[in-house]
Design a protein that fits this description.
heterodimer; A: about 300 residues; mainly alpha; MetI-like fold; two-stranded antiparallel sheet; 2 strands; about 5% strand; B: about 290 residues; about 0% strand; globular
Chain lengths: ~300, ~290
């Protein structure tokens, strides 16, 4: 948490920088930094502090909220929404793993076999993002519908019994199941995995791979001993860029799931926007979630050893 | 760029060095098949949107194919509320893009060109908005706005403020990448030729960074126009286009939404095609 406290100190501190090798007016960087950092401090850090205070208030929208140090809100926030925390964690972890599994071959193919089609293929990865993600997510309603192609294929392949047993489908439906939610999430976040993976794979000198095969490595060994270690920054970046938005996502759970696929985000929105006195507990949940995500992400970055992600 | 070195190395090196057993050929084939399948997965929804935009829906919801019709394309604004929400989204996107691009570009210049203390703290402050789940940013902003302007004060400006907040970091990253890849000797050359710092900036630095700034602005605009979660927490009674789509899932989902979705796709493709052609023409002239 110290990393979070630092920026405020940095934004207000205006000590002149030590003399550079080139003569520069020392105030210039701060004049350039100040407006943007002020914006982030007021509209990003301050709200977090406000919501920490809001999380221990009581009241309702008609009479207003008072700071009563009602720590029981945290009790509710943690114990009442166990299923939602479990779902958010499960779906986002599954999504991250699947995105890596699907994204790696695509990024590898474009980087090493793309040839002159490289930029066209990368454009194909990005182009769909320019259509509203909500419309694209709802398109899965059509694809996964009971009359749609996916159910048709499953039915004619007679594997519905198997998918049923695995819990991927329920009663012959694909839409409004946990599988549909994860499918939507993988679809939505796959470009976020592919882009950093591609960037790090593209930097690898193909001659290194040739050297590997010159020294009688199999394709797989070359990949495991050379390509994979060199692409680790992309793996770390890609999984982070997928996991972080995925853990807060409730669009897919809402649009492609059912009432039993509830995730934390849905509860926060519900408490904030539809319940008259839910906003303190909603704030408490978002504080829990933020701290949880931050701890997970920080320990992951520590472990992976890539701190210069930005 | 890299394309200059990569294809000859792969093309010339592969047949000579690697003994092409049928097995390794099959492996390459598997990679190709897998990649094609994943591309189908990624592009399928766009195809479905285009397809369904020509549908005559049976009920209120345009989810199941009925029969061909161009009615939705002939009258995309059949529901004025939808086109109004699109207008609002574009307006917010434009304002947020301009502000975020200016703020972010200034930060990027400071980070790349200047030395100062607290750099890691500032990096953390820039990284956090990208690392925080959207719902958390939305909820915390809502909590602050409730406490200051009250629920009635939410609207155009609270949405725009929120959008600028989450766009700034992405602008910084994009512009920084361009700035860091720039050859610093070009600016030194300009100064050697007696250009003033201002002339150096406007005649050398800015034209070189411009593509990065343009890319950052495009990214900010796309992020702003497409945002749902943070917007819903800061919108009050206003309805942006993503909020309209969200509401449509409950009310009625007309084919017109698919028409707009198709227009977004076709528009993007047209812009890419146009810029590629322009680039070729310019290259041919040189």
């Amino acid at each position: 948490m110290t990393a979070v406290a630092d920026p405020t100190a940095g934004a207000t501190q205006r000590k002149p920088a030590p003399p550079d090798h080139k003569p520069r007016r020392n105030l210039t960087p701060w004049i350039l930094l100040l407006p943007g950092l002020l914006w982030l401090t007021v509209f990003f850090l301050l709200p977090i502090l406000t919501s920490v205070s809001a999380s221990v208030q009581t009241g309702n929208y008609d009479d207003g909220f008072k700071l009563t140090w009602h720590w029981a809100n945290y009790g509710h926030a943690i114990s009442d929404y166990g299923t939602q925390y479990w779902h958010s964690g499960l779906y986002s972890t599954l999504t991250t793993v699947l995105c890596l599994a699907l994204g790696y071959p695509v990024a590898y193919f474009i980087a090493f076999k793309g040839g002159k089609w490289k930029s066209l293929l990368m454009a194909l990865v990005i182009v769909p993002s320019f259509t509203s993600f909500l419309i694209r997510t709802i398109a899965w309603e059509t694809i996964l519908a009971d009359q749609g192609p996916v159910v048709h294929v499953l039915r004619s392949a007679h594997v519905l019994g198997l998918t049923e047993a695995l819990g991927w489908t329920t009663g012959g439906h694909v839409i409004n199941t946990p599988a549909a939610v994860v499918c939507g999430m993988v679809y939505n976040f796959l470009p976020f995995t592919i882009l950093p993976l591609y960037t790090s794979l593209e930097k690898i000198d193909p001659r290194l791979l040739e050297a590997g095969s010159d020294l009688y490595c199999s394709t797989f060994t070359t990949w495991r001993r050379i390509t994979l270690p060199l692409s680790m920054p992309g793996v770390v970046g890609g999984t982070l860029l997928t996991f972080i938005p995925a853990i807060g996502d409730y669009i897919n759970a809402q649009l492609l799931g059912n009432p039993n696929t509830g995730v934390v985000g849905q509860k926060i929105e519900d408490l904030f926007l539809r319940q008259t006195s839910g906003y303190p507990v909603g704030s408490a949940i978002s504080v829990v979630m933020m701290v949880g995500t931050l701890v997970l992400v920080m320990s992951y970055i520590r472990k992976a050893g890539t701190e210069d992600l930005l | 760029m890299t394309t200059l070195t990569a294809p000859p190395a792969a093309g010339a090196g592969a047949p000579a060095v690697r003994r092409r057993s049928p097995l390794s050929w099959a492996r390459e084939h598997i990679l190709l098949v897998v990649t094609v399948a994943i591309f189908v997965f990624m592009l399928l929804p766009n195809a479905v949107i285009l397809w369904m935009s020509f549908n005559q829906p049976v009920g209120k919801f345009n989810y199941v194919w009925n029969h061909f019709s161009t009615a939705a394309w002939a009258n995309p604004c059949a529901n004025p509320a939808m086109c109004h929400s699109i207008g609002l989204s574009l307006e917010i996107g434009a304002v947020a893009t301009v502000v975020a691009t200016i703020l972010g570009t200034m930060i990027a210049f400071a980070m790349v060109r200047h030395r100062f203390k607290a750099r890691s703290g500032i990096n953390a402050l820039l990284f956090l908005p990208m690392a925080a789940p959207e719902v958390v940013m939305g909820a915390t902003l809502a909590a602050m706005f409730f406490n200051t302007v009250g629920p009635g004060g939410l609207g155009f400006w609270t949405i725009t403020i929120a959008h600028v907040m989450f766009c700034v970091s992405y602008v910084v990253v994009t512009v920084k990448a361009r700035l860091a890849g720039m050859d610093p000797t070009l600016e030194r050359a300009a100064q050697d030729l007696y250009a003033t710092p201002f002339q150096t900036f406007t005649k050398v630095t800015l034209p070189l960074v411009a593509p990065g700034i343009a890319a950052a602005a495009l990214l900010a605009f796309a992020l702003s126009v497409d945002d749902y979660i943070i917007t819903v927490f800061t919108a009050g009674n206003l309805e942006t286009f993503p909020m309209y789509i969200w509401g449509s899932v409950q009310r009625a989902y007309p084919a017109q939404i698919d028409v707009i979705g198709s227009m977004m796709l076709l528009g993007t493709m047209a812009v890419i095609a146009l810029s590629t052609i322009l680039g070729r023409v310019r290259a041919a002239r040189k």
